[in-house]
Structure formats: C-alpha cells, structure tokens
Amino acid sequence: MKITLGNLGYIAKKLHASSYDTALLSSKPQDPPVTPGEAAVLRYLIQQTEPKSIRDIEYATGLVQSWVSTTVKTLATRGWVEIGKDAKDRRVTTVIARQEIIEEAKVTCEIDANTALFNLLPKATDAEMQKIKDGIETIFDVLSRQEGGQKRL
What gap in Å lies between CA 50 and CA 86, rounded to an integer? Predict the structure, then answer.
C-alpha cells in the first residue's frame, strides 16, 4: 500500500480518537471533559520543569497560537496551570503545570495504549498487533530523537 497524506491523516485521526476515548474511560471524569487540545497542551506541560512560552507550546503540540492561548486560559481557570510573564521579556506569556496536578495527569498519560489499539483493531491478529506496536514505537523513537529526546511517559 502506498502511504498517502490521506491515508496518514486517516490513521492519525483514528489513533487519536481511540486514545482519547480510552483516556476518558480510564481517567477520573472531568466536568467539562478535557478536550483533545487541552490534553495535548497538558501532556507537554507535565514533562517540563520550567515555564514554557505559548510559542514553545505551539511548536511542541502543533496547535495554532490562538488555540494554545485559549486552551491555556481554560487550563488556568481549571487550576491546572499557572500563567506568568517571562523574566527577560515581560511581553512573553509563560505557562507551567501546577505541581498538584502533575501526578494525576501522568497517570492519565501512562494508561496502557494496548486497550486503545485493541478497541480500534479488534480483528487484528497477534502478529499484526506486534507489527503495529513495533511501528508506533519506531515512529516515536525517531520523532523524539529529532526533537531532542522527548520524554517517554
């Protein structure tokens, strides 16, 4: 099969939806529920040890600046992040995850993805599932190497 942008987009959409559904079922319920954008921003922030700029978050998550800004405001309203100003350039908004939520957020991010894969691909054989897992791990390793060693959660 030729991997086209359409095929890649379809796979990414299905994987994202499956992982999101699994996280919702496995996590402490939130009211209102965490959006995919909030989850992406939070997943990035809980790995950081110092405040990050909106631009850093935008780059790391692939979300556009307006979505990042809106998401950060929502997360701050929920009490999950702290918003500040950069010490060197007061025009730059910085964000850091609050210590109180980091452990619970990590638990959500560390949910065994096998459940999501089995729900998405119930007709896959054991051999096919192993190939899929190996492929996903390879993609993750290559991407993280390119991005300077993204932490595994």
Answer: 11
Phi, psi (rounded to 5 degrees) for 111? -60, 135
What pTM was computed for the model? 0.62
Cα gap 151→130, rounded to integer Å: 23
Instruction: Kindly state the tokens that stand for 67.
Output: 């979505």
Burial class of residue 98 in the structure, from the number of CB atoms within 10 Å of its CB (0-12 exposed, 13-18 middle, 19+ buried): middle
- pLDDT tens for 5-50 read 898 888 888 887 787 777 666 666 566 667 778 888 988 999 899 9
Tokens for 124? 């896959």
- What's the CA dihedral at 146, 151, 152, 153 to 10 degrees? -140
DSSP 150: P
